[in-house]
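Researcher: Sequence of Response regulator transcription factor follows. Predict its structure.
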Amino acid sequence: MRVLVVEDEQLLADAVATGLRREAMAVDVVYDGAAALERIAVNDYDVIILDRDLPVVHGDDVCRKVVELGMPTRVLMLTASGDVSDRVEGLELGADDYLPKPFAFTELTARVRALGRRTTVALPPVLERAGIRLDPNRREVFRDGREVQLAPKEFAVLEVLMRSEGAVVSAEQLLEKAWDENTDPFTNVVRVTVMTLRRKLGEPAVIITVPGSGYRI
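Model: Prediction complete. Tokens:
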């Protein structure tokens, strides 16, 4: 899942990003509304965590732009105010969910995952295919009943492949969904991660390479 965190409190923004990366999400971070508009113009995000009271360009205007562009991106709006009127106003702007500060990180993560499921065709919370059982919420993977310990990026790549339901996923798509914008697109990081993932999942191999196209399960 690709997430953009837009929050002018830099310590909070960086802490949220670090936590979500540990949950196997690809996270970009910006600290004002203008930078957020630049990112959404070039990158596709599943979820935007958007502080409402942003400098340069207000969070309301960022939310309006996402709606105006007709993007499938879901917006989780944050605010220091817990007033019902503020929550209603934020949702009327086009936000998909609303979370007042301070918040529990576990709740933020659960809301982000729930919104991420709404950007694509609805799938069950636990994904199963080819003997693999992947639970995004518990961060657990089993192969034929055997638990498989995966690093965050390996988990992220496997989740993208499982959600594709047999369709071919290109290396570029994996890079976009599982890594943030600081990753060099010309590295072999996707190939190396897939190789490690294959080894950990064991035989027979379930991740198939489609020459010239990408990978599928």
